[in-house]
């Protein structure tokens, strides 16, 4: 039985490759990104030959360290190689300076815009038998607008004090396509349940997260657009339940009763905060994957940052990257090898003997990689 939740039947990503050789761009970025991206490569290379896949890899540059060396955070060559040569990519991590650095902007944000990666899909799932409340949800985050358009200004007010302003942009177009993505994922997850896949949910539900009680125009447009799309397409999505949650109460319920959530869709900022917070429900940011997805390309990206405090110590958790690698394969239309990877990771976590320190273990990054590859 396929354990894929994300393959979209009409997407150009889920196409049949004639050669079954996939070229994957590797973008380590900063910090521990350089330590965990090799884990994704190693797992792809270790997939059993019966899956019928082979891989070529190309190493690409981006990140804050590259900016400090060259003055460019995202080289044009990296974008061109991804567009013209690669089927998908893995992105490690990027350092984000907390103060303004002239000329610098996040390369992953730029990649999302340049490659049309309008959705950030972040599944958060507890391992069967793990202590605590069960978690099995997917956060679908709009990836291209909101406050992340980075249109800010600072000026001096009449009283001589400084004022900073940022534009929050919500469009009908972006809201509708992210809503559609959420509903499609809900249908895929329900199809798996109907086929007998284990789940804590019996029916599919999409929860729209917003703050339209305060931001009545911007967040109001987001929620109204998604609801309008649902109402206009009930012939396809009528089996999906739809509700909504104000973002502050969403945070409260996420930690009090995470088992009630199935698919959560939100604007860029709320999706970012909720998905990082949800990682605490399953132990660590080091185990939570994500995929930046558009109609023509996908980049797998672990949810953790560059973690400079543990860089170079050999203890960074590679599981988020390995799961992101599987998620990339799902969106590329290869659920069987993706399922192998998920099963191997789940077995490692369920046994609980070979874990990195963020999960209470004492194993190294390479120990975990070796154990997961052995389980493949």
From TrEMBL:
Which EC number(s) does UniProt give? 1.1.1.87
Q: Does the keyword Transcription regulation apply?
A: no
Gene3D superfamilies documented for this protein: Isopropylmalate Dehydrogenase
Domain Isopropylmalate dehydrogenase-like span(s) in chain numbering:
23-372
Q: Which GO terms describe its cellular component?
A: mitochondrion
Q: Which domain of life is it from?
A: Eukaryota
Q: Which UniProt keywords apply?
A: Amino-acid biosynthesis, Lysine biosynthesis, Magnesium, Metal-binding, NAD, Oxidoreductase, Phosphoprotein
> Which InterPro entries does the entry mention?
IsoCit/isopropylmalate_DH_CS (IPR019818), IsoPropMal-DH-like_dom (IPR024084)
**Reactions it catalyzes:** (2R,3S)-homoisocitrate + NAD(+) = 2-oxoadipate + CO2 + NADH
Q: What's a BP term from Gene Ontology annotated to this protein?
A: tricarboxylic acid cycle
Q: So which cofactors does this thing need?
A: Mg(2+)
Q: Which GO terms describe its molecular function?
A: homoisocitrate dehydrogenase activity; isocitrate dehydrogenase (NAD+) activity; magnesium ion binding; NAD binding
The pathway to which it is assigned is:
Amino-acid biosynthesis; L-lysine biosynthesis via AAA pathway; L-alpha-aminoadipate from 2-oxoglutarate: step 4/5
The residues forming the signal peptide are none
Q: Which family does it belong to?
A: Belongs to the isocitrate and isopropylmalate dehydrogenases family.
Protein name in the entry: homoisocitrate dehydrogenase
This protein's species is Magnusiomyces paraingens
């Amino acid at each position: 039985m396929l354990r894929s939740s994300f393959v979209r039947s009409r997407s150009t990503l889920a196409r049949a490759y004639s050669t079954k050789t996939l070229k994957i761009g590797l973008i380590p970025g900063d910090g521990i990104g350089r330590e965990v991206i090799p884990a994704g490569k190693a797992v792809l290379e270790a997939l059993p030959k019966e899956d019928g896949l082979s891989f070529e890899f190309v190493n690409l540059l981006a990140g804050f360290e590259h900016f400090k060396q060259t003055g460019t955070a995202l080289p044009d060559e990296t974008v061109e190689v991804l567009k013209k040569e690669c089927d998908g990519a893995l992105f490690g991590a990027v350092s984000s300076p907390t103060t303004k650095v002239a000329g610098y902007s996040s390369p992953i944000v730029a990649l999302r815009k340049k490659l049309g990666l309008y959705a950030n899909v972040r599944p958060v799932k507890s391992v069967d038998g793990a202590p605590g409340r069960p978690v099995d949800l997917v956060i679908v985050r709009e990836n291209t607008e909101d406050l992340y358009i980075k249109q800010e200004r600072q000026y001096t007010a009449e009283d001589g004090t400084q004022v900073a302003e940022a534009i929050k942009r919500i469009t009908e177009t972006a809201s509708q396509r992210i809503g559609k993505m959420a509903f499609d994922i809900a249908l895929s997850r329900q199809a798996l349940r109907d086929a007998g896949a284990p789940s804590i949910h019996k029916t599919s539900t999409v929860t729209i997260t917003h703050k339209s009680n305060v931001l009545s125009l911007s967040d109001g447009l987001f929620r109204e657009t998604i609801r309008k799309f649902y109402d206009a397409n009930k012939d396809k999505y009528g089996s999906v339940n739809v509700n909504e949650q104000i973002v502050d109460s969403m945070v409260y319920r996420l930690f009090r009763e995470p088992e009630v959530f199935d698919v959560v869709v939100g604007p860029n900022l709320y999706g970012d905060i909720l998905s990082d917070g949800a990682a605490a429900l399953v132990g660590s940011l080091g185990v939570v994957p994500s995929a930046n997805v558009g109609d023509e390309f996908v980049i797998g990206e672990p949810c953790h940052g560059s973690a400079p405090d543990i860089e170079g110590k050999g203890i960074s958790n590679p599981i988020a990257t390995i799961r992101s690698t599987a998620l990339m394969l799902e969106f590329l239309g290869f659920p069987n090898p993706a399922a192998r990877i998920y099963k191997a990771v789940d077995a490692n976590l369920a046994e609980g003997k070979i874990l990195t320190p963020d999960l209470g273990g004492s194993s190294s990054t390479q120990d975990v990689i070796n154990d997961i590859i052995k389980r493949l």
